[in-house]
Design goal:
Creatine Amidinohydrolase; 20% strand; six-stranded mixed sheet; 20 strands; single chain; alpha+beta; Creatine Amidinohydrolase, Chain A, domain 1; 34% helix; five-stranded mixed sheet; 2 domains; 362 residues; globular
């Protein structure tokens, strides 16, 4: 669930919109529940009846809660009763139960995409939210060091990942995590993500674990560093030579008023000068949903604002699109430059490092 501060800031924007259009009614549909509100009304949480025994119902700050058999029918009936003409919907590309969609589709109102407006309303984090973001960052870095401690050739990709997952769960992430992997042999990583599996790791395998979790407060962060005990291939090393310059140049541009597209273009141009392209999305806003608007992309002409949070993760690929190098960091947009929220240097880790030894090297 979104925090009270982020959702109330959204409500302020929403009320201003209604004053102008008279027809705009947002309805938010994240996985598991719907939030509906109109004008000066207090918001309502709408749960499917079968979810009554899941979760602590006293925990949400939204106290008006209903439990219909078919949430879509409940929302349609309310829209008809109040003569709504347009329903702004967050999550038009999310999965919705067929029964709910069928009921909504029978209404005379129009379902209007509201993803960008909602994400922009909650993009700038409050001080309360920044505390939760930093807590999540501490958790993901803690898990990374547990992963480093468990990194041994001969173990499987999943076994190396397991100590990190244990730390994540113990510190409050619960099921809110997505830990995937890019890996390959002979000092190179294949340019596709997968779930860590039962493949046994050799010393010259390149492992790029993408660690994506929340803290107990529900705010997502992302982090990754490269692991290898052998020698990176010539292609991988050439990519690595460009990485620190690209990431530091991007960090300096992650400032109030800069366009998100400028950050992307700067990173892309640095890697292009070394003969490489970008594969996966360069980056994106991140909060209580893992992927939020705006993206860090070529067409993202959105001014950055102080205290927005972004994940930057350029995936560098060779000309054939088969070999890649990847890293992730989470940043706070600053007044004059960005703040990287992790205190872990970019390098190839071999499993012999500890948090203390790396700190002393600084």
């Amino acid at each position: 669930m979104w925090s009270e501060s982020s959702l109330r800031s959204f409500c302020q924007v929403r009320k201003k919109s209604i004053a102008v259009t008279k027809t705009f009614v947002p309805a938010c549909k994240p996985p598991g529940w719907t939030l509906s509100s109109y004008a000066a009304d207090e918001p309502t949480l709408v749960f499917p009846r079968e979810a009554r025994w899941i979760g602590d119902k006293k925990k949400p700050w939204v106290k008006d809660q209903v439990w219909p058999d078919v949430p879509g029918q409940w929302l349609r009936d309310r829209a008809v009763e109040r003569k709504w003409k347009r329903i702004g919907t967050f999550g038009m590309n999310f999965v919705m139960a067929v029964r709910d969609y069928r009921e909504l589709a029978q209404g005379s109102f129009e379902l209007v995409p509201f993803d960008q407006e909602f994400d922009m309303a909650r993009a700038v984090k409050s001080e309360e939210e920044l505390v939760e973001v930093r807590d999540a960052m501490d958790i993901v870095v803690d898990g990374f060091w547990a992963l480093i401690g468990g990194y041994r050739p001969g173990r499987t990709e999943a076994e190396i990942m397991a100590p990190a997952v244990e730390r994540f769960f113990a510190r409050g992430a619960g099921p809110r995590m997505m830990n995937i992997l890019l890996s390959g042999e002979h000092g190179e990583a294949n340019a596709y993500f997968k779930v860590p599996g039962h493949r046994k790791v050799s010393g010259d395998d390149l492992l790029l674990y993408s660690l994506e979790v929340t803290g107990a407060g529900g705010y997502w962060v992302e982090f990754s560093r490269a692991l290898i005990q052998g020698k990176p291939s010539a292609t991988t090393q050439k990519m690595a030579d460009a990485y620190p310059h690209a990431m530091e140049s991007a960090r300096k541009l992650m400032r109030h008023g800069e366009l998100a597209s400028t950050v992307h273009r700067t990173v892309a141009e640095i890697f292009a000068k070394h003969g490489f392209a970008l594969g996966h999305l360069s980056g994106h806003s991140i909060g209580m949903t893992m992927l939020e608007y705006p993206a860090i992309g070529a067409k993202s002409e959105v001014p950055l604002e102080e205290n927005m949070i972004f994940s930057l993760h350029p995936q560098v690929v060779d000309q054939d699109g088969k070999v890649c190098l990847y890293t992730q960091d989470t940043y706070r947009i600053g007044r004059t430059e960005g703040e990287c929220l992790a205190d872990v240097p970019w390098k190839f880790f071999n499993g012999g490092e500890t948090r203390e030894s790396v700190r002393n090297q600084k």
